[in-house]
Amino acid sequence: MVTGTGMMGTSTTDTAPGVQTASLRLMHLVSPSLPVGGFTYSQGLEWAVESGWLGDAKDAERWLTGELKATLAWLDLPIAARMMAAVAADDQDGLAQWTHLLLAARETSELRAEERQRGRAMADLLRAWDLPGSADWRDLLAQSQTAGFAFAAVRWQIPVADALGGLAFAWAENLVLAAVKLVPLGQSDGQRVLMRIAAEIPAAVDLACGLGDDDIGASSPALAIASACHERQYTRLFRS
């Protein structure tokens, strides 16, 4: 009779590798159900579709892969790594410096507003989770959702490379879901696009982790144009 044991009467809990708490926390942190509003933004994708720049799955994949390689790898991910280092060192001044740089690098008022709006929601969530220091750091964390992500990753002892990979995947998933609605794409097409973008994330994380401070920076003219135009788009599904 099977009574919850493995072969030779050995309990499976004695032999199976344990699920790491940090991995589970990362899944929680990147979940699309996290109430920070990531699914309400398209980062210019909505205007790019309406203008005819993007018309099918290949276009959407090319757009998002380009943003991953040209923007996230050179800006968001290396700054997130430095934010984690500042939190680990209990260095609020350092976190403020990187937060201000990230906001300055957001090329439109829409992108800056998204960073701050999601930052406020993330800061409130961190306090609801009772993460140590979240109340004392709240005003700073509320300026940037990336800062809040970094704070949670450090408090939950998530390794830096894993955290950066999760941040990139959450970004990709939110925007692929937006593309499914906007292009539109079928659910299967969307999942294929997400798989191919995800395959590029490890290289983006490796690049980000190898950058020096003076190497950090990115400019995406197409994203900036699309986002700026989206601010005044007459009919839209996504927030500005």
Please tell me about this protein's structure.
With 240 residues, the protein is mostly helical. It has a single domain, classed as Urease accessory protein UreF (Orthogonal Bundle), CATH 1.10.4190. The chain is built from 11 helices and no strands. The protein starts with 11 loop residues before the first helix and ends in a 10-residue tail after the last helix.
Keywords:
240 residues, mainly alpha, Urease accessory protein UreF, 11 helices, 65% helix, globular, disordered N terminus, nickel insertion
Order of helices and strands: HHHHHHHHHHH
The major sheet is characterized as: none
Task: Quote the beta fraction.
Answer: under 5%
In the CATH scheme, the class would be Mainly Alpha
The radius of gyration over CA amounts to 19 Å
**Average of per-residue pLDDT values:** 90
In helices, the fraction of residues equals 55-70%
User: In CATH terms, what is the fold-level topology?
Assistant: Urease accessory protein UreF
Report low-confidence residues grouped into runs of 5 or more.
1-15
Our count of helices gives: 11
- Strand elements, count: 0
Class from secondary-structure proportions: mainly alpha
Corresponding CATH superfamily: Urease accessory protein UreF
Which descriptor suits the 3D outline? Answer: globular
Distance between the termini: 61 Å
